[in-house]
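User: Here's a structure from my thesis project, written as structure tokens. My advisor, Dr. K., wants to see whether a designed sequence matches the one we expressed. Can you design one independently, without my sequence as a hint?
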């Protein structure tokens, strides 16, 4: 059993229902939650109320003063109103503005250590993929 599921069960007294049921539950409930509801709820997680800030540092370790600086900057951004609310209108329909010239597979590289394949196309584009047994809309973070 995954660590997060164990934490969910024992620390928060939440049931462990299984990935299939959880995925179906998300598909059923998410269409009924609006962006404005998420934005309103997110107000509870301002640093002035209580939150967790995850930092990824280029150095081996961050000092307490470094972390205080980060929290202070986040608080300042909140007070200034510099952290904009989520804007669904700015989501682009297309990832790229100009459609590339069609190409064919010129080279294929296998990365067996991670089970991924990279295709290098004749037009210079690169396509990387990895076959998984995930559900269509499932994302797993480690």
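Assistant: Designed independently from the structure alone:
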């Amino acid at each position: 059993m995954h660590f997060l599921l164990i934490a969910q069960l024992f620390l928060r007294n939440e049931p462990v229902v299984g990935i299939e049921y959880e995925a179906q539950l998300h598909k059923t409930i998410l269409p009924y939650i609006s962006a404005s509801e998420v934005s309103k709820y997110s107000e509870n997680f301002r640093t002035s109320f209580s939150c967790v800030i995850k930092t990824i540092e280029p150095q081996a370790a961050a000092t307490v003063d470094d972390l205080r600086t980060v929290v202070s900057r986040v608080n300042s951004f909140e007070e200034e109103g510099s952290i904009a609310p989520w804007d669904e209108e700015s989501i682009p329909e297309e990832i790229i503005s100009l459609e590339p010239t069609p190409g064919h597979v010129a080279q294929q590289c296998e990365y067996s250590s991670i089970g991924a394949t990279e295709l290098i196309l004749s037009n210079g584009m690169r396509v990387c993929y990895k076959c998984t047994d995930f559900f269509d809309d499932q994302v797993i973070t480690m």
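When you compare it with your expressed construct, this may help: Residues 64-80 form the longest helix (17 residues).
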